[in-house]
């Protein structure tokens, strides 16, 4: 088996030539195809039929261009090799037209993985989801998951993958053999009712249905749903959800208790958890972003006034100004040696939550909070102590609640939190009793 590249003789308007591929498996099976990749003749080595060597004196942009093209050709060659190994009927393709259709499909499936669907009959939703991931991860440039996460079948470090995995698991549990050509509007109702039966709260069900529909929208746009128009028109039953209420955040006095508490010399683990959490309370950072925060993100490493970090979840990059609390925590850690220049030593979300509950219990933060949840039409009123439910995300919620109490506008708060609109921020935007009491005393 040999796979070789060569330039076509025809140039386009940009004075580039398309790269052709020639494949020889045996005397019988020989075929050529158009790769869809173009290169200037001066960047092509005719002797080796490959991208020329890169000169160190040329621009960095040109070097990246040639490296990318070389990588694409290597990936395409590997893709063709796998296709040849996986194709059982190569020797039976005696007709030139059949061979040409085969290589055209192989190259097209490299440039656009979704075309694989056109050759698959009886495709299940589970199989479709894997191809959907392949396409989206390439389109949106998802980062591969860490090796430790891959053991838990987490392939990509991206919020979309987590949401898709949740839907994929749910649909698999509902009907492991759900066929794409059997999905109708009624399937949406079936999935919603399944989630209600599993005991999911309505807010979680809404998230599942939103993601499920988005996947089916993509399938419909690309022509892979037999009853696509029925799915698009269908509206599932509106589920009742309770309005957000103040829940799982610290009052200002509770925050000061956390911030000012002095730990023993042997409690460095709890002290680190407290400092990380209080930094989130004072800056609105998510714990996932705090884990990526480096000293280099600050405007002045010695005496900073602000920092800018690209959010892991939304890719927005707000500039966050420091206050006396966040700055004092920064100054406490700025000279410490940490992995990869991080501001804080690493600490997992699970360990953080465990430490925060321990600290809150020690400080006597036993204030009871309540919230209402719905599962289908069933209502449940949940009451719990702050020390039993506090978690890292309470830091971000604490920031939003206190900013609202101090009279910040919605737009100003969003300039720190990075929420696109009020709808996205609404679950965090719970006005506490402080402002309500102040207004009552002022006007009555």
How would you describe this structure to a colleague?
This protein is of the alpha+beta class and about 450 residues long. It folds into three domains: about 1-110, no CATH class; about 120-235, DNA polymerase, domain 1, CATH 1.10.150; about 250-444, Orthogonal Bundle (hpI Integrase, Chain A), CATH 1.10.443.10. Helices cover about 45% and strands about 15% of the residues. The protein is built from 18 helices and eleven strands. It has helices at about 60-85, 95-110, 125-140, 145-150, 160-175, 185-195, 200-220, 230-235, 250-260, 270-285, 285-290, 325-335, 350-360, 385-390, 395-405, 410-415, 420-425, 435-444; strands spanning about 1-10, 15-25, 30-40, 45, 50, 145, 155, 305-310, 320, 370-375, 380-385. A three-stranded antiparallel sheet has the order 1-2-3. Strands 4-5 form a two-stranded antiparallel sheet. β1 and β2 form a beta hairpin. α3 (about 125-140) packs antiparallel against α5, α6 runs antiparallel to α7 (about 200-220) and α10 (about 270-285) crosses α15 (about 395-405). The relative contact order is 0.07.
């Amino acid at each position: 088996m040999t796979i070789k590249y060569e330039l076509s003789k025809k140039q386009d308007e940009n004075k580039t030539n398309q790269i052709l591929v020639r494949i020889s498996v045996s005397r019988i099976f020989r075929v050529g195809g158009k790769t869809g990749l173009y290169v200037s003749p001066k960047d092509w080595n005719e002797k080796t039929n490959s991208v020329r060597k890169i000169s160190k004196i040329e621009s960095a942009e040109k070097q990246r261009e040639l490296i990318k093209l070389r990588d694409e050709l290597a990936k395409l060659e590997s893709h063709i090799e796998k296709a040849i190994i996986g194709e059982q009927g190569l020797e039976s393709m005696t007709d030139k037209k059949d061979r040409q259709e085969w290589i055209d499909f192989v190259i097209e499936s490299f440039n656009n993985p979704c075309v694989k669907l056109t050759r698959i009959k009886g495709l299940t939703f589970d199989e479709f989801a894997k191809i959907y991931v392949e396409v989206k991860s390439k389109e949106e440039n998802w980062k591969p998951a860490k090796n430790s996460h891959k053991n838990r079948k987490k392939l990509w470090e991206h919020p979309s993958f987590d949401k898709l995995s949740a839907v994929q698991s749910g649909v698999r549990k509902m009907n492991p053999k759900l066929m794409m050509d059997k999905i109708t509007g009624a399937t949406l109702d079936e999935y919603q009712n399944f989630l209600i039966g599993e005991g999911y709260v309505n807010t979680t069900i809404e998230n599942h249905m939103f993601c499920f529909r988005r996947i089916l929208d993509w399938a419909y746009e690309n022509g892979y749903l037999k009853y696509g128009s029925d799915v698009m028109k269908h509206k599932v039953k509106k589920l009742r959800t309770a309005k957000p209420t103040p829940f799982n955040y610290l009052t200002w006095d509770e925050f000061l208790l956390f911030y000012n508490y002095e730990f023993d010399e042997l409690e460095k683990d709890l002290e680190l958890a407290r400092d990380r959490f209080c930094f989130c309370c004072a800056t609105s950072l998510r714990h996932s972003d705090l884990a990526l925060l480096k000293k280099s993100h600050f405007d002045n490493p010695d005496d900073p006034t602000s920092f800018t970090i690209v959010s892991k979840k939304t890719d927005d990059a707000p500039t966050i100004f420091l206050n006396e609390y966040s700055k004092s925590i920064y100054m406490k850690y700025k000279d410490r040696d940490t992995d990869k220049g991080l501001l804080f030593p690493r600490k997992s979300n699970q360990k953080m939550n465990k430490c925060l509950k321990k600290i809150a219990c020690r400080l006597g933060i036993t204030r009871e909070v309540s919230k209402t949840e719905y599962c289908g039409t069933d209502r449940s009123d949940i009451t719990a102590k702050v020390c039993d439910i506090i978690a890292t995300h309470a830091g971000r919620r604490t920031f939003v609640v206190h900013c609202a109490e101090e009279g910040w506008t919605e737009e100003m708060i969003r300039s720190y939190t990075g929420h696109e609109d009020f709808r996205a921020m609404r679950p965090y935007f719970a006005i506490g009793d402080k402002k309500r009491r102040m207004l009552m005393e002022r006007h009555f």
